From TrEMBL:
Name of the protein: methylmalonate-semialdehyde dehydrogenase (CoA acylating)
Family the UniProt entry places it in: Belongs to the aldehyde dehydrogenase family.
Keywords: NAD, Oxidoreductase
A Pfam family it matches: Aldedh
Gene3D superfamilies: Aldehyde Dehydrogenase, Chain A, domain 1 (3.40.605.10), Aldehyde Dehydrogenase, Chain A, domain 2 (3.40.309.10)
InterPro entries xrefs: Ald_DH/histidinol_DH (IPR016161), Ald_DH_C (IPR016163), Ald_DH_CS_CYS (IPR016160), Ald_DH_N (IPR016162), Aldehyde_DH_dom (IPR015590), MeMal-semiAld_DH (IPR010061)
UniProt KW NAD keyword: yes
Residue ranges occupied by any Aldehyde dehydrogenase domain in the UniProt entry: 24-484
Annotated GO MF terms: methylmalonate-semialdehyde dehydrogenase (acylating, NAD) activity
Swiss-Prot/TrEMBL GO biological process terms: L-valine catabolic process; thymine catabolic process
Entry EC number(s): 1.2.1.27
Length: 504
């Protein structure tokens, strides 16, 4: 049932069997521009029957797709990479409108997704098994890597291009079907990604897209044809998804919240530290799972705080198409309220707010979800400001005397997504790299998101599962290994039954 409400992009269809599929849902949600609250689209919460239809379409397509040779599957990815590059600007503009991200950042996000598609182009060599001749006399052993069947992806609002592209290209290149349930807050970019994938020659049904919230996620996870679930989002929901999927004995990987610390040694290059802290702290309005939200100033590095405050005051949010804007709005009014509340709570708990972004306004956009850069010093580990993921342009500064203290602080935090050290000392960098209990480490690099030939390796409270996103680990996540032991008899057949477990 269409929503009958006028919006810029209209009532969005689901994407099933290679085409737009209007939803019969009675539940529709508004997609609002975070920049001015204008109505961009209405998005349906797919019915249970529609979710099942998407999964069954992906299953039917997968039965044929798994027989397509790996180099041919890779050629679809090559064409997809070219199409994504040809549509780079269009995708970035769409993404910027629904997320509010500034255009340069939106272009960067699309590019990081394209890089994963490039990795999927090399799927043939990544799916090679192992061989050992003569595991016993006249017996050979080898392994085959085969697709699972239909896999599912549930993605968050903050990267509507990059995170779906972490998942479906590689899963499908491995020979699987895929059902994607993107965030209902940013449905436009994922739909366009699916259309372009079809245009690149992907068979009908191999990638299906449904929208919705918790009930749709439950319908996906519990469907018997779904073999594996990839989730990216908040820690609360990720834990639920992981428990539910593994309770049903399915494979799951859940990438969740973060609290990323950057350690600043007094021997670091000050100018680099200041500009990197601003970029990594407030870029994308702090709505990145790898954003730096805590700066740990070691020893005399604390003397740089006044200049850091100046650098924070010098950047301003603004609309996605403005060259002046350093970053865009928060995703929703609710997200803005939450961040404002955590700032207030920080002040109440005794942290010193050096720069307060709550009153910021943007000329011509009175209704945007704006939050100015916000900087605290004197933050301690028991404060909510420190304990919670803020997901806003807020940087908490803490001061310690030694690198070992900084490492102990980071290792005591429940999250372990990303971290960085800025230093001029190789010995300090090595100690940090070796001792820190975080899965992605930057040395004079503030946001160390690995390129796709590695994997995205968050640890501890930032990740539930074993095998991570993209890279070799994702190929293993989306496949099953079959091991074959093979003998061909010649005239020299051993006589009598072999009653032992050994091969003879
Ligand atoms: P979210 O958890 O609210 O939503 C994520 C997805 O889950 C969406 O598709 C949403 O529709 C669905 N969902 C929401 N409630 C659900 C429920 N009760 N049951 C089942 N599904 C449900 O997250 P968000 O606000 O969209 O994204 C921000 C969060 O994502 C932050 O915590 C951020 O750190 C995290 N994130 C993590 C990574 C990472 O790699 N670790 C990357 C990006 C974002």
């Amino acid at each position: 049932m269409p929503s009958n409400i006028h919006s810029r992009f209209g009532d969005l269809p689901l994407f099933i069997d290679g085409k737009a599929s209007p939803s019969a849902s009675e539940q529709w949600l508004p997609v609002r521009s975070p920049t001015d609250q204008s109505l961009l689209a209405m998005v349906p919460c797919a019915t249970e029957a529609e979710v099942a239809r998407a999964i069954e379409a992906a299953h039917t397509a997968q039965l044929a797709w798994r027989e397509v040779p790996a180099p041919e599957r890779a050629r679809v990815m090559l064409r997809y990479q070219q199409l994504l590059k040809a549509h780079h600007d269009e995708l970035a503009e769409l993404l910027a409108q629904e997320t509010g991200k500034i255009l340069a950042d939106a272009r960067g996000e699309v590019w990081r997704g394209i890089e994963v598609v490039e990795q999927a182009c090399g799927v043939a060599s990544q799916m090679m098994g192992e061989t050992l001749e003569n595991v016993a006399r006249g017996v050979d052993g080898y392994s085959l890597v085969q697709p699972l069947g239909v896999c599912a992806g549930i993605t968050p609002f903050n990267f509507p291009a990059m995170i779906p592209l972490w998942m479906f290209p590689l899963a499908i290149a491995c020979g699987n079907g895929f059902v994607l349930k993107p965030s209902e807050q940013v449905p436009l970019t994922p739909l366009r990604l699916a259309e372009l994938f079809r245009e690149a020659g992907a068979p009908d049904g191999i990638l299906c897209l449904v929208y919705g919230q918790a009930p749709q996620v439950e319908a996906i996870i519990s469907h018997p044809l779904i073999r594996a679930v990839s989730f990216v989002g908040s820690a609360r929901v990720g834990a639920q998804v992981y428990r539910r999927a593994t309770d049903l004995l399915k494979r799951a990987q859940c990438f969740v919240g973060a609290k990323n610390h950057m350690v600043i040694m007094p021997d670091a290059n000050k100018a680099q530290v200041l500009s990197n802290l601003v970029g990594a702290g407030v870029g994308a309005a702090g709505q990145r799972c790898m954003a730096i939200s805590v700066a740990v100033l070691v020893g005399s590095a604390r003397d740089w705080l006044p200049e850091l405050a100046e650098a924070f005051r010098a950047v301003h949010p603004g609309p996605w198409d403005s060259d002046e804007a350093a970053y865009g709005p928060l995703i929703s009014h609710g997200a803005r309220e939450r961040v404002a509340h955590l700032i207030e709570e920080g002040i109440r708990e005794g942290a010193h707010c050096l720069v307060d972004g709550r009153e910021v306004t943007v000329h011509g956009y009175p209704d945007g979800n704006w939050m100015g850069p916000t900087l605290f010093r004197g933050v301690t580990a028991h404060m909510r400001l420190y304990q919670e993921e803020i997901f806003g342009p807020v940087l908490a500064c803490m001061e310690v005397e030694t690198l070992s203290e900084a490492i102990a602080l980071i290792n005591a935090n429940p999250y372990g997504n990303g971290t960085a050290i800025f230093t001029g000392s190789g010995a300090a960098a090595r100690q940090f790299r070796h001792e820190v209990a975080v899965g992605q480490v930057g040395i004079n690099v503030p946001i160390p998101v690995p390129l796709p030939f590695f994997s995205f390796t968050g640890w501890r409270g930032s990740f539930y599962g074993d095998l991570h996103a993209y890279g070799k680990q994702a190929v293993r996540f989306y496949t099953e290994t079959k091991t074959v032991t093979e003998r061909w008899f010649d005239d020299d057949v051993p006589s009598g039954p072999n009653l032992t477990i050994s091969l003879r």
